[in-house]
Give the backbone structure.
Amino acid sequence: MTVAAEEPFSLIIFGASGDLTRRKLMPALWSLYAGRVLPEPFTIIATARTGMTDDEFRVRMRAAIGEFARIQPPSEAVWERFARALVYVAGDPTDAALYPRIERALKDAEAAGASRLFYCATPPSLYDDIIQNLGSSSLARPVGGFTRIIVEKPFGRDYASARALGRQLASAFHEEQIYRIDHYLGKETVQNILVFRFANGIFEPLWNRNHVAEVQVTVAESIGVETRGAYYEEAGALRDMMQNHLLQLLCLIAMEPPVTFDAGPVRDEKNKVMHAIRPIEPARVSESALRGQYGPGFAEGKPVPGYRQEKGVAPDSKTETYAALRLLVDNWRWAGVPFYLRTGKRLAKRVSEIAIRFHHTPHLIFRRSPAGVEANSLVIRIQPDEGMALTVAAKTPGPDLRLGPVRLDFRYGEVFGGEPPEAYERLLLDAIHGDATLYAPGDWVEKAWQLLGPVLDAWGEAAGPPLYPYEAGSWGPAEAEAFIARDSGAWRRP
Ligand code: NDP
Ligand code: BG6
C-alpha cells in the first residue's frame, strides 16, 4: 500500500447505525488511518435514522474498533484525532429533506476541493431512493475532485431488478463512478489467485482440460443466519453467496490471462468466462442445482435451532440455506471439466477453498503398491488457515514400495506473519484511488443473474425441485453426494 497522500476526501455512509458499518467499514477505515495509508484530510459523514449526537456515534465506533479492528489505537490521542473527522447526521435516507442537511454538514466539515465517496450500506431495498435523492439533490455533482458511489451487494435480486437498479444508478452517475462491491475480491487469498496463476510460469501449462479433472469451490459457514433472519428469508444461499462470491471465484480460476492487471482487461476476461458458462436448461434444473435447509443440530458441541426456528424466519420457510451447482465452461480450455460450487450456513466448519483435482497418471508402473495413488490436487485455502497445498504421491519410508499422498503446504501466517489486511481496507482504498479492478462491473452482475435465472425460477415455484433437509453441523444434505457422484467425484471434507 502507498503512504497516505494529501488528497482531501469525504466519505458519506448511508445506514451508518448498522452492522456493516460497525463490524467492517469503520474498523477498516481506522486500520487504514492507523497504518498511515488513508489519504488526508478526510471527513466521514455517517447517516441513519437512529437519533445520535456526533459524540455518541464516536463512542459507538470506538467500541466497534475495540472489538473488530485489526489494529488497536496506540493511544487515546491518536483515536481522538481520527474521531474528530466523524460527523453524524440523523435522518431517513428515503426523505429528500435529509440531503440538504448532509450537504450543510459537508460544507461545515470537509476540506476545500474534497472528493466525495458515497457508500450505500443500508438494506438494498433503499438503494433506489438513495440514488434518486442523490441525483435530484446537488450532491452527486462533482465539487472538487471525484464523486463516486459504492453499492453493497446484493445488487438486485434477479436479472430484471439488477437492470432496473443499473438504470437508476445510470440516471445519477456515470459507469466509471459506480463501484459494486464484492468483499471476496478484496481478500488477500483471493487476490493471490491471479498472482499465483499469472506470476508463475509452471502452472499455466497444467491449467486446462488436459490436466484438470474437476474444480470444487466451497464456501462453508458454521454460523446460522444470526440476527439477519428477515434479510435471509428474502435472499437464500443462491442470492446471498452464489450469485456473487462463488461465481467470482470461479471466474478467477477459469479466466484467460488479461493483457495487464487493470480494471478493463481483468473485467473483460471475467465477462468472457460468464459468457462461456453453459446456460442452465429450465427443464433440467435439478441436474445443475441442488438446495437444502438446515434443521436443528449442533455447533461447537452446543445444540442449535433449525433455520425455521430462527428469529425472523417463517415456520414453513422454503428458503435454501445450502446451494450446490454443477457448471460447465464451454471453451477450449475447460470443455468437459465440471465446476462444482457449494455454499451453506450451519455446515460442519467455516472454510472457504478452491480444490483443483488433476487427472490420474495415464499408466501406473507401481503395480505392487496396494493402495494405488490418488490423483494430484491443488487446494487454495481462502480462509481460515490461509494458504495452499499441492498433494503429490511419494514413497513412504520402508523396505516395501508403498505410495502415499504428501502435502506441499504453504501457510500465509507462517511465511508472512501478522494478520493480513481486511478485504474492506483494500477495497475502500481502491475506490478512493479510483481503481475498480477488484469491483464487479454491471454487465458481469447482470450476466450472473441471467445464469441463475432458471434456478431462481424453479426454486421459486411451489412445486419446484425438493428442498433437502440437513442437520446443523453436518456437511449438508445427503443428496448432495449423489449430485456430485455423476462425474465419479465426491465432495471434499476440508
Ligand atoms: P442493517 O440491517 O444493519 O441495516 C443498516 C442500517 O440501515 C440500519 O442500521 C438502519 O439504520 C438502516 N435501515 C434499515 N431499515 C431501514 C429503513 N426501512 N429505512 C431507512 N433506513 C433503514 O444492514 P447491514 O449493515 O448488515 O448491511 C448493509 C448492507 O451491506 C446490506 O446491503 C448487506 O447485504 C450488505 N452486507 C452486509 C454485510 C454484513 O456483514 N453485515 C456483509 C456484506 C454485505 P436506522 O434504523 O438507524 O435508520
Ligand atoms: C456476506 C453474506 O456477503 O458474506 C453473509 O451476506 C456471509 O451471509 C458473509 O456470512 C461471509 O463473508 P466472510 O468474509 O465471513 O466469508
About this structure: The chain is about 35% helix and 25% strand. Residues 229-254 form the longest helix (26 residues).
